[in-house]
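Researcher: Let's run the pair from yesterday's discussion. Sequence first, then tokens, for each.
Model: Starting with the first of the pair.
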Amino acid sequence: MIVKYSANRSWAPHGEDRPLIDVVCVIVCYRPVVSTLLSLCEYILADGAKVILVDNTEQPYLVADRLPIGCSLVTLGHNSGIAHAQNIGVEQALEVGAAIVVFFDQDSTIGVGFLRALVAPLDPSLPEITSPQYIDDDSNAVLPSLRLNRYGLTKAIHRTDAQRPYPVDIVISSGTAATKEVFKIAGRFDEALFIDGVDTEWCLRCRSMGIPIYVVPLATMRHRIGSRSVRIGSFTVHIHSPVRCYYQLRNCFQLMHKPHVPRLFALAHMVSVAFSRMLLLFLVEERFAYLNAYVLAVCDGFKGVVGAKPT
């Protein structure tokens, strides 16, 4: 079944009062701050949902016996990339009967009732995705989601006064909820991207198949992009490591070859990423490491290198 955006969509909540026993939250972990991670798990469990932790750390980092009841652990023993880890989590969630799968980062911060508000608009029998209203940890400003026009160019959407869910095209994966029907139609996450661009590619794939994505303004979640952000004029530069910058640049080339990614979007995205990474050089001390990562990213992008960064 493929659905389309509809102005007549009924927003009677489907999960506001029922137990969330068919909601499973997937949290991909890589050397997490355990106290922060456990706090997130406790909030999820308090709403009646289950938790699947997928540990991407090279050495066993989490111990199943020390996790709260309701949490299960999958230890991969190496950094397999967020896309592969999320796919493992989805597979596990569907095996235990999930009707709705929710994704969180290991450092996500939520409050009481967040999960209920997020999944309440979803009809588990339909392919639908909901996302929270994100609040930037540094500036306390609302982080916009994106909507594409007919040509593939983006417009930032943040309706701070909205009371009902509203449609968008691209959201951050952390805090995103998807019904199991979404995975039947759109499939899993693209493991070739490894880390960066995974959520963007998947959202655009869902968009191409008519699967709607809605921001739920009553579900708010704080989020941090990069280790910190710096404002330069009208631009905000997010500080990432050289390795993350490698994936950000390299995967721009991958998006160019995806049939469901509009060409103008892919080109504008590449220009935006390249420009922001050049600005980053004025804000870091290890400029040679960053430049080396940039050159390698462009070379690997042209060669079609995918998956983990070559060592």
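Model: Moving on to the second of the pair.
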Amino acid sequence: HGVEGYDTLDGDGAVAEIASRLPKYGVTAFCPTTVACAPEQLKEMLEQVRTARVHRPRGSARVLPAHLESNFINPEYRGAQPGECLRMPDFAGHKGPRRIEQNAPDDGVALLDTARPFTGRDILDLISSRRPDVGIVTLAPELPGGIDLVKTLVSAGHIVSIGHTGANFDEAIAAIEAGASHATHLFNRMSPIGHRQPGVAGAVLSRQDVVAELICDGHHVHPAMSRLAITSKGVDGIMAITDGTGGSGLPVGSTARLGGRPIRVTDHAAVLEDGTLAGSTLTMERAFGTIVSRFEFSIVEAST
């Protein structure tokens, strides 16, 4: 089955709507993917996932448990993630909202009702109550309490993915040893690979027990680096994804929304109003074509 990280559209019934659109792009199953958000929004999305998993209309793609690009990520590597919804995973003993302090300017988007602040524990309690509907959780293991959170989530049956992270090589390896087995959009929004400081990317490439997502549009990752990653890990160690947004498949200049914020379709990707990269506009059949035509792998290798 084709499994793609496809950021959910806004509104009620969005997951089912996405599921109905994806088969024409060659996708038979997918993980609806969230950005960091308040518990109320996450609960609504997971309810949609549960409904779509139980009641699959004829002709729709199968809805898999969700991928949460969660509240527990590094603000310096958040990209288009809403900073006001980020939390520290060292929740034990803290009663306040435990917002992550950051130097970045405020997003100016009211995704968090400040009259009803939430904690990291609130998010984890919600995940606990909806375990069958949560498949993958992306987090930054270098945050205080990050490794303990990896162990907690893995022991509960979730796949933990390293992503939106500034971890160094040793911190990434520690997360893998703790049970992290996935990497969110390799090279994008993570500490880069260097010959003396391998970073998260180097840790992921060096371990065959980690499956790495790769955005296969030739823009998020240069084709040469994409070939290097696939050659290094083998076709079984790389998961081709679209990181698709609501702008996927739309003409240049079109607008959509991501986590309540407007995004715009450009020649190569989707961006926020300030130009921040906000995901791709890729569809899965185009990703497949890119792997063959630009990354120079065979059709058999691309389909493995």
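Researcher: Give me one sentence on the second I can quote.
Model: The first strand starts at residue 5 and ends at 7.
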